[in-house]
Write a structure and sequence with these properties.
- One of its GO terms (molecular function) is N-acetyltransferase activity.
- This is Acetyltransferase (GNAT) family protein.
- It comes from Nocardioides exalbidus.
- The structure is a single chain.
- The chain is built from 4 helices and 5 strands.
- By secondary structure, the protein is of the alpha+beta class.
- The radius of gyration is 15 Å and the shape is globular.
- The model has no long low-confidence stretch (mean pLDDT 94).
Length: 149
């Protein structure tokens, strides 16, 4: 694959390739294989009642990356931002610009929607992604915690 990534919203016909990429994302983060989770996320991407959206990067007619995102309200600033939940690029094409193209498209869409920020988290040891992120965004001082309900 030598083409430039074209970024577009995920479409129903992308299901097979999207599933392959999402499985790769889950494997990268050492999440167990779970068809119920994959089915649920796929359904969210096509449900107008659920505010989870997807972008895909396509090169020469093949999906090579995905990004899942949603709006989030920011009471501290009285604004709405875009939260990037998941970003994944097929390892075979990492470094091709597909990841950057996905984030750039998300930022352009956020600007067009009047959003105040595009925000995401990544694993501390995800050095390859962090190298790209450091070149295109500001690392924050915030530490993230999870508490089970």
């Amino acid at each position: 694959m030598a083409g430039v990534a074209r970024v577009r919203p995920v479409e129903p016909g992308d299901e097979g390739e999207w599933r392959r990429l999402f499985a790769g994302y889950r494997e990268f983060y050492e999440l167990p294989a779970d068809d119920d989770v994959v089915d649920r996320v796929w359904s969210w991407l096509h449900d107008a009642e659920v505010e989870v959206h997807g972008l895909v990067a396509e090169v020469d007619g093949v999906l090579v990356g995905l990004a899942h995102h949603r709006a989030f309200h920011r009471p501290s600033t009285g604004t709405v931002g875009t939260w990037l939940d998941d970003l994944f690029v097929d390892p075979a094409v990492r470094g091709s610009g597909a990841g950057r193209a996905l984030v750039d498209r998300l930022a352009a869409d956020a600007a067009a929607q009047g959003r105040s920020v595009v925000r995401w988290i990544t694993a501390e040891d995800n050095d390859v992604a962090r190298g790209m992120y450091d070149s295109m965004a500001d690392a924050t001082r915030w530490v993230t915690y999870d508490r089970r309900p």
